[in-house]
Amino acid sequence: MKIKEKSKNIYEIPKEGNMNVPSIVIADEKMLETIKKDKTLEQIKNVATLKGIIKNAIALPDCHQGYGFPIGGVAAFDIDKGVISPGGIGYDINCSVRLLKTNLTKKQVLEKQKQLTDLLYKKIPSGVGRGSHFNLSFKELDKVLEQGARYFVEKGFGEKEDYLSTEEQECMKDCDSSKVSERAKKRGIGQLGTLGAGNHFLEVQYIDEIFDEEIAKVFGLEKNQITIMVHCGSRGLGHQVASDYIKVMEDKYGFENLVDRELINAPINSEIGKNYYKAMCCAANFAFANKQLITHWVREAIKEIFPESKINVVYDVCHNIAKFEEHAIDGKLKKVLVCRKGATRSFDKQPVIIPGSMGTSSYLLIGTKKAEELTFGSTVHGAGRISSRNSALKELKGKEIKQQLNNQGIEVQAGSMQSLAEEAPQVYKDVDEVIKIVDDLGISKKIARMKPLIVIKG
Question: Which run of H or E residues covers position 187?
Fold first, then answer.
């Protein structure tokens, strides 16, 4: 495969064969060698063959092999000529991150660290098979799918400010719960307010370093302040929405003309394409609502130990989503469909939340005009895996990972020792290196770095 350096930290796979546009890989030389170890480059090249794709297919520094699109992949499509592919969004629709700030300090939490860890683990269901404390009817679930976090805030599980300052105000408007199957609803109805398994987590962190004092002050952040990060998605409901529409698209359009069956798609303006987008919006709203319930229970737990505590939402940002947005194409603003899979929106002056791997740093950044020009307003979503879960289980032991984290002063509670092995820091890229690349390139800029004190894993 041909790949050439265009400029510092930007590589290009030139347009050839059935590619409609070139593919761009954002990485430094060292990161590129890591990326070459799986099928990521082949996948981002394949994305460039999709109908109606605009400018280029983009792989970000945290990219690694995924389903259809690589995780860490971005592509924009012409609304009239383009397609929508579940593989360009992912099975965990609106897997996303919410950042909370508190009026607590690192010193205060260290004094009650174990007590708080145990209480949060008890309050927030996590792991495979752990259902929600919360019950609702299917009629109420439909309202959640169409109202997102707002539904629970209006029921008393939070504050209006929780969703007002977040991406989409935590409700994708083009939703239609009738486009979500009964099977998907059955899978999701008992999972609201749960973290799930995999790489999802809840972390109590402290701000270790401020890079931009002025912007940090605007967000109400300072050194040694306690923050809380919630990373989860649409659980079984989102997974089923993806599965349902992959089958519908295969039955209608087949995959004989695709370079990869996993890139199955439908025209954006087709009935199937429109129905999938509406169902995807519902799954995204489920994920927003999911984090709203978790936020409510986090507040309850922390107030039990720290009665004077105050917790506010800094921001909430998606990283598995498709959105209709306006971008400059050939010098003119044009409405396009942007698919971000394992990629975070990075519009100018918008907060960007990047979690690290378990036990490592996480970051708050801010979006830039450079990202809008270069990556359709996108940046990374995390560190990015370098080793599969199966490989991790062969090489690592959960008890040893837990001990390593404890030795760093981090309290850990997990659904299983297996999940700790699968999500060990060793199986991810160095998040500090990933952040350095996007900060140097200017597609998002560092504001603050957070380090964990408490980790709750599925």
Answer: helix 182-188
Q: How far apart are CA 69 and CA 80, in angstroms?
A: 21
Sign of the Cα torsion 146, 319, 244, 57 reads positive
Mean pLDDT (the chain) is 96
The active-site residue out of 231, 296, 319, 381 is 381
Tokens of 359: 């036990």
Whether the model pTM is above 0.90: yes
The C-alpha atoms of residue 289 and residue 278 are separated, in whole angstroms, by 17
407 vs 423: CA distance, rounded Å: 17
- 43/261 Cα distance (integer angstroms): 11
Report which of 332, 325, 335, 331 is spatially closest to residue 80, judged by C-alpha positions.
335
Q: Which two tokens stand for residue 194?
A: 């749960």
Q: What is the total residue count of the chain?
A: 458
pLDDT digits (tens, 9 = 90+) for 145-166: 999 999 999 999 999 999 998 9
Distance CA 207, CA 300 (A): 22
Q: What's the CATH code, domain 4-457?
A: 3.90.1860.10
User: CA 302, 304, 308, 311 torsion: positive or negative?
Assistant: positive
Question: Of 201, 204, 203, which is closest to residue 231 (Cα–Cα)?
Answer: 201
Q: 56, 82 in Cβ contact below 8 A?
A: no
Q: Please, are residues 88 and 419 in contact by the beta-carbon 8 Å criterion? A: no
Q: How far is it, in rounded angstroms, from Cα 322 to Cα 280?
A: 8
Is 381 an active-site residue? Answer: yes
Q: Are 107 and 334 in contact (CB under 8 A)?
A: no
pLDDT per residue as tens digits for the range 31-66: 999 999 999 999 999 999 999 999 999 999 999 999
For 263-325, the three-class secondary structure string (H helix, E strand, C coil) is: HCCEECCCHHHHHHHHHHHHHHHHHHHHHHHHHHHHHHHHHHHCCCCCEEEEEEEECEEEEEE
Bridge partners of 11? 5, 25
Note the pLDDT of residue 388. 85
Separation between Cα atoms, residue 339 and residue 322, nearest integer Å? 4
Q: Are strands 57-64 and 23-26 parallel, antiparallel or unpaired?
A: parallel
**Nearest-angstrom CA–CA distance, 94 and 342:** 10
Helix (H, G, I), strand (E, B) or coil at 146: helix
